[in-house]
Amino acid sequence: MSCPDCFKGAVLEGEPTGIISSQFDGAYFATGGTSKRAIILLTDIFGLPLKNPKILADNFAKHLECDLSFFDLVKFVWGVLPSVPAMVRHRPSVVEARTISLVKKLQIAKKYELLGAIGYCFGGGIATQIGASKPELFNSIILVHPLPPTDGQIKAIKTPTAWSSPEDDLAIKPARLAEIERLYAARKGTPNFVEYEIKVYPEPMGAVALEEDVWGQIHSGLNFTLYAHNCLNPTVLKTL
Questions:
Q1: Nearest 5°: CA angle at 19, between 71 and 138?
Q2: Within 10 Å of residue 110's Cβ, how many Cβ atoms?
Q3: Which residues of the chain register pLDDT less than 70?
Q4: What is the pLDDT of residues 90-122, one digit of tens each?
Q5: 16-39: per-residue pLDDT in tens?
Q6: Per-residue model confidence (pLDDT) at position 94
Q7: Contact yes or no for 143/119 (Cβ under 8 A)
């Protein structure tokens, strides 16, 4: 559920400017404009208790001029990590179902025209699972250092997806990433083809960044320019 880089880094400067909404199970909201588009940030397991992902959300919302929200994927993680029953309650399949429920509730209330997802580490695995099981939920997905997907999940994804991975990744080794790309490429020229991008960066895990206008390349609606990895590593949040 986590990797060593989840425990590295430092606290970001500044204070969060968004709000916590009791209407959506304590989700964090950052507003960057009046557009009818939004991003769901699916974090690693440390999520909401830390201020770093909130500041990431604030910056994404500001620079992308859209709403940004994220939920506490694994509640009370500081107290439950040693507990096997707690880890079972927060296994990916359970978190996936809870995330889908919350996103649907948010969409019913907000009626966004475009809804995207950014998932990193544990949250990247959840984004992959949702992309496979509920492809209609998100218009596009960006994955940064996600949990390893299955072949079946990759084949089931019908949503434009961008992947960002370091060369030295504990989760997905280069050989596996090449297999993932072949699975996407095999769909070219068929009705099942989906736009995708896979980029590997030479930096270590804590410095992975999407440094391009990824969303503009894979989806005409949201025009993402993103920088992200895990919520404890501030070195990847650059000025857009």
A1: 40
A2: 15
A3: 1-10, 74-91, 203-240
A4: 467 888 998 999 999 999 999 998 899 988 888
A5: 999 999 888 889 999 987 878 899
A6: 84
A7: yes
Q: CA of 234: how far to CAs of 13, 231, 238, in Å?
A: 9, 7, 9
Number of domains within the chain: 1
The token pair that represents 112 in the structure block: 């966004």
Placement of tokens 């390349």 in the chain: 217
Q: Which residues of 69-99 are buried (b: 16+ CB within 10 A; e: fewer)?
A: bbbbbbbebeebeeeeeeeeebebeebbebb
Nearest to 127 by CA among 172, 92, 166, 164: 92
Tell me the two tokens of residue 193: 């083809």
Q: Which CATH number belongs to the domain containing residue 40 in this structure?
A: 3.40.50.1820
d(CA 59, CA 67): 11
Range of the domain at 44: 4-236
Entry field: residues in the chain: 240
Tokens of 40: 């769901």
Q: Tell me what pLDDT residue 214 has.
A: 36
